[in-house]
Design a protein that fits this description.
Blueprint: H1 2-27, H2 54-62, H3 82-116, E1 128-131, H4 135-169, H5 171-203, H6 211-218, H7 235-259, H8 267-298, H9 304-307, E2 310-312, H10 313-319, H11 321-328, E3 351-353
Antiparallel strand pairs: 1-2, 1-3
Helix pairs in contact: 3-8, 4-5, 4-8, 5-7, 7-8, 10-11
Amino acid sequence: MMLHRLIAAIFFIALMLVSVTTINAQSVRPPGNAVNQSTDEQIGTSNTLGPDSQSKYWHDLRQGKSGLSTTGRSGGLLIQAQGEQWRLIRKNYIIKYSGWVLAAVLVILVLFFLIRGKIRLKGGRSGQTISRFSLPHRTAHWFMASIFIMLGLSGLILLLGRTALAPLIGKNVYSIFASAAMQGHNLFGPLFIVALVWMYYLFVPGNFFKMVDLKWILKGGGLIGGHASAGHYNFGEKVWFWAVAIVGLLISITGIILEFPWLSANLQLLQISTIVHAIGAVGLIAFALGHIYIGTIGMEGALDSMTTGDVDVNWAKEHHDLWYEEVTGEKSATHDQGETGHAQVYSQDKITGV
């Protein structure tokens, strides 16, 4: 009886040893394409790249060497190394300095207002007005202004919110703002293109540069060197118009690329678009701050042209004397000698009492 138990135990132990041996043999079975290696080329953590060194391997990756990758439009590209450069540019330059640029513009405007004060009419209001902008012009202006403000605010939330807003309101609350900003930005973005085309069509006449603009520059727009004559648009207004037209076009093109990324198979184009889009938008916002300042609290009577469409006669004489002469046919007694306009002269019924 004891002998039977001993034989059974030996058989059981032998069975266990065979099972373990089989399992181990399966776990170390080499792949079908395995090759014999010398002791200098043994696989291990010290030499996982074969004959290539670590430095050469990563150098090839940074140069965009083709290799195995996930499927898709970037197939064949092992690592898109420019992505790290794009991230550093966005983080270390665009995000870092955009807020400071806008803050600097605001500080300059506040200091200018405290030092110079509001630009008031030297002769006061005359009680008579003259038509400056039609209803279609004003509608296009305010449509563009509304879209621009919504896109500007939502864009700044997305660009600077993580560093400037999230620490104040918390990440959870900021995530709600960021999500809403993204949806709003994508929704109103195409409307900016509509506003841009509409504005360009209505405002481009009269916004081409002339010799009188050079004289306006030399006199600092009237801040130095006495009165600076101007037509329907002065040099500052022309620069603002072309800035909106040209930079707005760049923002529109890059915005379309970013909103519909499947239109481009080039990942680098998408990265460049984000940089151009951000720089253009921040620059345009900074410019817009100056435009808003002059059009509201900075200059007496300036806002009237975009609310009622009419401006005071004295305002027209002091800031756009050549245009006043073209419209009314009478001299303003403020422009430089030899700078009268040569456009069509309209009748006195353009001037109305308040």
